[in-house]
Specification:
Strand content: 25-35%
Shape: globular
Number of domains: 1
Structural class: alpha+beta
Number of strands: 7
Distance between the termini: 12 Å
Order of helices and strands: HHEEEEEHEE
Strand order of the largest sheet: 1-4-5-6-7
Length: 132
C-alpha cells in the first residue's frame, strides 16, 4: 500500500497535541473525569495559539431499515479543523474506541486522529496516533 505522507501542518498539530497531552497528564495524573482533562487539554492547545472546537457535531445521516436518521456524532476535540482527538478517562481501552475514531476520520474526511486515555499511570501508554 502507498499512503500519502502527512502534511507539515498535520505533523505540527500532531506534535502540539502530544505535547499538550503530556503536560496535562504530568500535572493532573490519572483518576479524574474526561471533562476535566478535555478542558485542560484544550487550554494547553489554546495557549499554543491553536484553534480548537469542543464537542463538534458532525451531522452524518444514518440509514436503517429504510429510514434516514440525522443523528450523526460528536467529535470530542477538533484541532485547527484538521486533527480529531477522541478523549477517554477509562481503566481499560476497548477495541471499539479505535473503531470509533477510525469511523470519525472516515466520515469527517480527516486523515489524522489521536485516541487519548488520560487514566493511565504512564503518559505514553495513553496516546495512540491514528492515520487514514
Amino acid at each position: 500500500m502507498n499512503f500519502e505522507p502527512m502534511s507539515e501542518e498535520e505533523d505540527r498539530i500532531g506534535k502540539a497535541v502530544v505535547d499538550s497531552v503530556f503536560k496535562v497528564h504530568k500535572s493532573l495524573g490519572p483518576g479524574l473525569l474526561e471533562t476535566v482533562y478535555e478542558s485542560c487539554f484544550c487550554h494547553q492547545l489554546s495557549k499554543r495559539g491553536m484553534s480548537i472546537r469542543r464537542q463538534v457535531p458532525v451531522p452524518v445521516p444514518i440509514e436503517y431499515d429504510g429510514l434516514t436518521f440525522d443523528e450523526g456524532f460528536r467529535l470530542d476535540v477538533l484541532v485547527e479543523d484538521l486533527v480529531i482527538c477522541e478523549l477517554k478517562a477509562v481503566v481499560e481501552m476497548h477495541p471499539v474506541y479505535k473503531a470509533q475514531i477510525l469511523s470519525y476520520l472516515r466520515m469527517s474526511g480527516k486523515r489524522l486522529g489521536f485516541l487519548i486515555n488520560f487514566n493511565v499511570p504512564l503518559f505514553k501508554a495513553g496516546v495512540q496516533r491514528v492515520v487514514l
